[in-house]
Amino acid sequence: MVPASLQRIRAIAVKELRQMSRDRLTLAMVVGIPLLQMIIFGFGINNDVRHVRTGVVDLANTQASRTLIAEVGASQVIDFVARPGGVEALRRMIGSGQIQAGLYIPPDFERRRLDATRPVAQVIVDGTHPGVDTAVRAIATAPLPARSGQLQRLQPAFEVLTEFNPERRTAVQVVPALIGVILNMTMVIFTAIALVRERERGNLELLIMTPVRSGELMVGKLLPYVAVGLIQTTIVLLTAVLLFDVPVVGSVLQLYVGAGLFIAATLALGLVISTLATTQFQAMQLGFFTMLPSILLSGFAFPFEGMPRVVQYLAQALPLTHFVEILRGVILRGATLANLWQPVVKLSVFLLLAVLLAALRFRKRLD
Amino acid sequence: MNVPEIAIEAHGLTRRFGSVAAVNEVELCIPRGRIYGFLGPNGSGKSTTIRLLCGLIKPSSGTIRVLGLDIPRQAEALRRRVGYMTQRFSLWEDLSARENLAFMASIYTLEARHAAQRIAGAISEYRLAEFLDRPAGTLSGGQKQRLALAAATLHDPQLLMLDEPTSAVDPQSRRDFWESLFALTAAGTTILVSTHYMDEAERCHGLAILDLGRIVASGAPAQLMQDLPLQVVEIEAADTAAVRVALRSLPSLRSLAQLGLRLHALLAPAAAAAPADGAEEVRQLLARAGIVASVRRTTASLEDVFVGATQPPGPVAH
Fold this sequence. Notes:
The complex is a heterodimer.
Chain A lengths: L1 H21 L1 H21 L7 E7 L4 H12 L3 E5 L4 H9 L5 E5 L3 H6 L6 E6 L5 H10 L16 E6 L6 H32 L1 H6 L5 H31 L7 H25 L3 H18 L11 H8 L2 H15 L7 H21 L6
Parallel strand pairs in A: 1-2, 1-3, 4-5
Antiparallel strand pairs in A: 3-4
Helix pairs in contact in A: 2-11, 7-9, 7-10, 7-11, 7-13, 9-10, 9-14, 10-13, 10-14, 13-14
Chain B lengths: L5 E12 L2 E12 L3 E5 L6 H9 L6 E6 L2 E3 L3 H5 L2 E4 L11 H11 L4 H14 L15 H13 L5 E5 L7 H16 L3 E6 L2 H6 L2 E6 L2 E6 L1 H6 L4 E7 L2 H8 L5 E7 L2 E6 L10 H11 L4 E6 L3 H9 L8
Parallel strand pairs in B: 3-8, 3-9, 6-7, 7-8
Antiparallel strand pairs in B: 1-2, 1-4, 4-5, 9-10, 11-13, 11-14, 12-13
Helix pairs in contact in B: 3-5
């Protein structure tokens, strides 16, 4: 009895292997997905934050203050990329996401140096990014090397101020971005399946015999799901506010405009997948394949600053990366879409390219 | 629009899938306003030929002109003028019959009032009222087929391509379906239909019998039956098994089919020296074997034509 059963099991296993070996896409995924993900995430998930974009306002402008700036910069955790004129400008730049931290050296810096009970300078951190706050806090509280001519101090040299999330609650950092993650998960699969299902059910052969154009088909399939996505946005946003106590500082309307753009971009990504896959199963697999990098590399869970340059570029190709920036900007920092024009433009470019690619890949033929 | 008298024309039409020629050097010349049939077994290239003519797949070689358009180059222009029905029900099963019709009307961009008229016309013409609001997936084979034909003709196509439209349909529905097709040709529509039913093939004005991607016979069905170069012999016997055994030794036997107590034999034309009458040859053979049977020649049916055209020459294999 057992041998017969084993024989049947073996027959099925061999058949499955044969079928798989003839299905090049599945085969590529069997090998490619674990390999790629191992490489990407092995490097990508790293909490060692480096190169935090920082602005510096030095109102003392003395020999000692310049030395201090150089010392802080030498840690590689902080990159000074801007020199705004005053504290207000510094704060505005943090609000719009141009920089994530600021070093403020007050005019009475020299006097403070001599007073061991007062901090000599202030560090302002954007509290909406996980990891960044912790990293900046760490260098700010570390004792400065003796060579900077400091007095031996009892107090930390810096006073650290966390902007936009003073209580430093993880929920505030994570939940707004989670809106993007959830939308990303549902949207890609919606459209990834859309075309493939019609192919599988035989509808496509009829559809391509009609005068409908590829681009029309793509956009037509995309639009209804944008509405679905906006409904989902509402649900998740309400949960964020009611359950997690996330403050919505910015304009809700602008948030929805940003969300609509992101939803369209992810749906378009799904359509591209739909033109690649030949079965619903393949479409699902490809959909999930794009999801994990989005979640891990978008800055949702791990700070960009910890990722190597190559992975950061890769993250730029993911719509979620830009939407997370928009979400944190609008919800937590009260930024406007005009402030956040960079992620908005990048999302739009992604959307256009993806729709174009899907329409070009979708031939109105069966072969 | 000016429509040429020849609706479909193809020369040297060939389509290879890998090393297999699914359609091989097919020549077609189908006049307008006629029902033209493709008769052939599964895998004979019927569907592939129809898809080639629609521009759904590209030919490996050969030329196609449909309604005066160069296919596949002008396939997009053809879309509006052709109605297409696939072998498998290809409307949306989760939409109701009415929703499917509305979708098709709008995808062909029929103007709203015209669309409403056409849909109302189709509902009465194809008796769709009884199941108009049911999901198409729940309809019977015959109902699905009426709906599919209604959808394929909403935009008033000059040419209808029907790929085995009656394969999942009961005989009465098939009769009704063919009545509808004749009504459409009366209005000037050209119809290309593939089938593996003999009775349907016999209804066509013109017919091409396909086998292994080639046209092995073509012409009007009556002409094909008349011109069959084989002799048809009917043998009635109590012991049909014995007759089968005896006939095996007959070198000219091409095929043998049983219909109840009767055996239907196709015989190749005898060599010049032998007696020309196949029935006589069979009679003598059975007499020698001591089998009591009545043997007579009959006229060829379309099935005989089909078998004669698709069987490889040489004695029938057992």
